[in-house]
Amino acid sequence: MQAQAGAGRRGRDDIEALIIDILLVLMAFTVLILVRIRHLFTVVVLSGIYSFLMATVLVALDAVDVAMTEAAVGAGVSTVLLLGALHLCKSEEARPAHKPWIPLAVSVSTAALLIYGAMGLPDFADPDAPIHHHVVPRYMQNETDVPNVVTAVLASFRGYDTLGETTVVFTAGAGVIALLRRRRKAVEKADGK
Amino acid sequence: MKHDLVLRVIGKLLIPYILLFALYVQFHGDFGPGGGFQAGVIFAAGIVFYALIFGLENARQVMPDRLVETMLSSGVLIYAGVGLAGLFLGGNYLDYFVLDPNPVHGQHRGIFWVEAGVAITVCGVMLKIFYMFASRGRSE
Question: Would A67 disulfide with which of A55, A80, A87, A152, CB 3.0-4.6 Å?
Fold first, then answer.
């Protein structure tokens, strides 16, 4: 009985791994097309599709809150912002003046380093991995009595970090206001003269 | 896109549920996945969707610039204010245990207000950046 349940679980895990692999292959295809295409509207739409695929992968990995952020920010708001920016400039990407050998070498060597580093990581969902020890047992004791541990860690245990993050978001907004509003005033002044 | 009937109908049907889902993610964040950041982003995405279909001016009437700018700063102030409240009640900065006679209730109260602050700031920033970009092409 138990062996059967174990086999069923393994089958489910295999299907999950298959789904994730298919999604990752689709993402790789999207990136290859993105690199080749020079029509910027297509590029924006394709990067939205890339974000949606990423969000689906995150759902399959049980990280639903990250998936919600990715779908809303990556696929939703940033696609709209990029389309708004596209409205202000040319819709065709200019040909680069130089051959992209140096950036290619940098990105290939970074990828090689990352893959080499990933080989040293513990297995996926390994309960003995270092990230599941250290402070985690104390977090899991849950003295805050909030069922969602992610919320407890973000808002309570690591409240200082989240305060910093909120300040960063606020600073980004304030920076955009400072940059764009000044320009609009300058234009109005130029019109007045 | 103002004259696209399908989009208008679908938008009218969906937008209330998007906003409702944002509130659900916000207030159910203690129990299920989600929290302030997700809620703020989803709420902002709903308003951006409205602006895309019904025009920027209509969206500006729903969420005026002044309100959005107030949200931008008041979220951070609420967050920092929770920290200060902890100080005044005799704890450390951002210490929620002192916010209520029952320490566990204090934690809940602290997390509630902190998440509210995050959601308000994130929603304000998203909407402000969208308004700024969307109105640029028009003035030039």
Answer: A55
Q: What is the ipTM of this complex?
A: 0.85
Q: pLDDT band at A143, cuts 50/70/90?
A: low
Structurally, how many domains does chain B consist of? 1
A145 Cβ under 8 Å from any chain B Cβ: yes
- Retrieve residue A82's tokens: 């990029």
A182 pLDDT above the threshold of 60: yes
Contact list, B72 vs chain A (CB under 8 Å): 170, 173-174
User: Which residue pairs from A37-46 have beta carbons closer than 8 angstroms and sit at least 24 positions apart in sequence?
Assistant: A38/A92, A38/A93, A38/A95, A39/A91, A39/A92, A39/A93, A40/A86, A40/A90, A40/A91, A40/A92, A40/A93, A41/A83, A41/A86, A41/A91, A43/A93, A44/A79, A44/A82, A44/A83, A44/A86, A45/A79
The whole-number pLDDT of residue A4 equals 52
With CB atoms and an 8 Å threshold, state whether A68 touches B34. yes
Whether residue A77 is contained in a domain is answered as yes
**Is A169 a domain residue?**
no
A144/B111 CB distance under 8 A:
yes
Residue A133, pLDDT score: 75
Q: Which of residues 48-77 of B touch A (CB under 8 A)?
A: 48-49, 52, 69, 72-73, 75-76
pTM of the model: 0.82
Lowest mean pLDDT among A128-137, A169-178, B9-18, B131-140: B131-140
B47: containing domain = 5-139
Counting the structural domains of chain A, the total is 1
Mutation target to probe the A interface, by most A beta carbons within 10 A, among B42, B53, B78, B84 is B42
